[in-house]
Each structure stands twice: as C-alpha cells, then as structure tokens.
Amino acid sequence: MLQGALIGAFVSVIIIVFRLMKQRNAAKSVLAGMTQGNPQAARAQLDQKYPAVQRLSTMNFQDQIERICWVAILGDVGSAERELQAYEGGLNLTTQVRAFGYAALLAHRTDARDIQSMAHTLHLIESEGGMMLGVIKKMTRDFASVAKALNNEQPIDADAVKRLTRRAAQMGPGAKIAVYRYVSRALDSQGQNGAEWATKADDVFRTLTGA
User: Fold this and answer.
1) What is the pLDDT of residue 165?
2) Mean of all residue pLDDT scores within the chain
3) Distance of CA 149 to the CA centre of its chain
4) Cα 13 to chain centroid, rounded
5) Where is average pLDDT lowest: 24-38, 41-55, 60-74, 109-123?
C-alpha cells in the first residue's frame, strides 16, 4: 500500500514538472512575438500552444487559465471577455478559470464589468458549490476581496494577497504575471506600495527572455 502511494506521488510530481515545462515553453514562444513587436505572431503562438476551448475538463482547465491570462496580457480584452463568458463545465473548473481570468483583466484595467463578473463568480460558487469545494471558495473569496480593494470598496486584505501570490507562484508564467500585477494595482489603489509585486511580474518576463 505504501509503495503504491509513493508511486502515485512520484507520478503526480512528474506530471506537474511536465506541465510547468510546457507552460514555460509556451510562454517563451508568446514572448518571442511580443519582444519582436509582432502581436499577431504572439497571438498565433498562444492559439497554437493553448487552443481556445468551450468545455472545461480536469485535463484542460489549467491550460485555459494560462491562455486567458495571456490573452489579457496581450491586451485582447474583447476575446478574453467572450471566452470567459462562454466556458462550460463543472462549477469547480469554471470558477477557477474565471477567477484568474477576471483578475487578469483587472490587472490591466479597472472596469466595473470585471468587478461585477468577479463578484458573480464568487456568488455562484458560494451559493451552488458544496462542502467539497471549500478550497476553491476560499480562493475565489480572496480574488473577489482584492477586486473590491482595487475598486476602493474596502481595505485590502493582506492575508488574501499572501494566499493569492503563494498560489500564483505554483502556476504558469501567465498566471504569475497576471496575479502579481493584479495585487500590485490593488495595493497602489489603496495608497500602498504595490511596486514589489509589479517588479515580481517583470522578473517573470525577464526570466523567460533571459534578460
């Protein structure tokens, strides 16, 4: 029994490592287009590495988190909005992708629609999600809390910032950049210093480009 558990843990680690390698290589391809001043090439690379899907599954939702974050980073907010609204699948999956997606949009603009969409995402998981989704509920509360702080509806929750940035540190480059910029903007809007997280977002870019 112990041997089986160890094998299972080893396989899980290998899967995570391969996923992170894939995300890093995809990010490098997208950035190659960005640094050459060719947004069309960057978007073409993104679509090739992470094709848009409508139906989320346990096999593709993490790739879609990376995709939607990069779509926002590339500035195609219209596509990001449409894709976020079109997602279908289990509530646990759609909630995670939308929470990261609306955070990615809010990392680059302050739009009442994104604030409202984040709040609606939280409302759905709170009202329709069962006890087994406690971790996802907590994460979504943190995302929604930072959105309210960004909109100056409430003081920023330092613990929520810590939890979100720790989670982002385990994600792909696109999610890292989006979340770091998100909390940076929220801190700045509250008159606090968000430069640390803006710098961390820039560091992710520099790591990918080798600069």
Assistant:
1) 98
2) 87
3) 18
4) 21
5) 24-38
